[in-house]
Amino acid sequence: MSFSVSGQHVTVVGAARSGIAAAMLLAQREARVTLTEGSAQIDAGTAEQLRGAGVALELGGHRRATFTSADLLVLSPGVPLDHPDIVAAREAGVDVIGEIELASRWLSGRIVAITGTKGKSTTTTLTGRMFAAGGFKTLVGGNIGTPLSSQVAASTPQTFHIVEVSSFQLETTDTFHPWIAVLLNLSSDHLDRHGSMEVYGAAKAKIFANQTPDDWAVINADDPQTLALARAARAQKVLFSANTPLVPLTSIRLIGRHLVADVMAAAAVAQIAGVPREAIVQAVESFTGLEHALEPVAVVGGVRFVNDSKATNIEAAQRAIESFGTGLIVIMGGRFKSGDFSLLREPLRTRHARVIAIGEATPLIAGAFEGAVPVDPAATLEGAVARGYALARGEGRDVVLLAPACASFDMFRDYAERGRVFKQETRKLEEEWNGTREH
Question: What's the DSSP call for residue 359?
Fold first, then answer.
């Protein structure tokens, strides 16, 4: 029997994009929906749209009874499972699932799910482009920005849903069943939420939980932790590696060797699905990367500025740093999540790099690099960009790299806003430089 919420009272927790999409989908499926949000206000147009669809809004805090009296609780990814009201709902016998789980129960097409600590968005985007280039009916969504719930209406048996999934989304899955599941890599991240690498790894491994021998698991051959997590998967296993070129390396137009592995993962998925090789290569050749992921911004007076604001953990920052040679200035910092900054000492030292530290993590960064790497504090990202340029010009360095190794929430709404500010300040410098040259 198909999943139905008709006539049921469903509480959706969190009014970000995925929560709003879930609430609208549930209302369309004739549930009695309450959307509860801790903030006192949401966008007025969105609120009007939700109320017009019959969704009751509970803003400015949560009422315990809204959780415990529901037939079903649907969580946005940012909502922790140990929230007291969610614990109370579970104890009252309420089913608790996430938005990805909800949407997947109503999809008609096959799911390609992609997760990992780093590279999810690049791999998801490129996989979608390969499928589209091959003439496949393709929808790309999930954690990458388009909620899966908003794509249910367009799902057909011929549709391939290319879905980026985070650990937060996977931990609230139950029946989620990808035809192809991809685990790119695993390293320390989100331990402020998950508590330990074991719990974090277990959340990632749920991507394989409902697969059968008719499905496929695509796994990084170069990552021992990934291989270990996938060992129990029942799906057919396909290994990918940065050292196994499924497409010509000359067709890849991305900064950073680690991104080669993401390209090979996407190519492995496309091959399983039967995408023609020429379509795979065509998609790679036309792909120059994502915004905020080792994104070239500008060259100002011989100094290259590169935006990797998506590098929100230590390993991602390390990969970014290792994509460059000597002559590097790295802007780093923000809200520390987890990990060990000292792992970056050697990559920075061997490149004779210099660090400009911003945000709450500044003392941690200074302590970790003491005696090995010069660290300059900056009160703002705007100041860090100006300082980085001045140092680069004065010391003959040629790259200023934003690789924060931290979350953005102490100074910005999200990593995207942080990246946009970095680019905005860089372009101001570029305008000043061009103005100076014209005079």
Answer: S
Helix, strand or coil, per DSSP, at residue 193: helix
Mean pLDDT in the chain?
94
| H or E element that contains 346 | helix 345-350
Residue 285 tokens, joined: 């050749």
| CB atoms near residue 123 (< 10 Å) | 28
Specify the DSSP class assigned to residue 430: H
pLDDT beyond 50 at 439: no
Q: Side chain identity at 324, as an amino acid letter?
A: F
Cα–Cα distances (Å) from 298 to 119, 295, 408, in that order, read 23, 10, 22
Question: What is the three-class DSSP state of 190?
Answer: coil
CB 307 within 8 A of CB 423: yes
Residue located via tokens 């009272």: 9
- pTM exceeds 0.70: yes
In three-state secondary structure terms, 161 is strand
Q: What structural domains and CATH numbers belong to the chain?
A: 9-98 (3.40.50.720), 107-285 (3.40.1190.10), 295-438 (3.90.190.20)
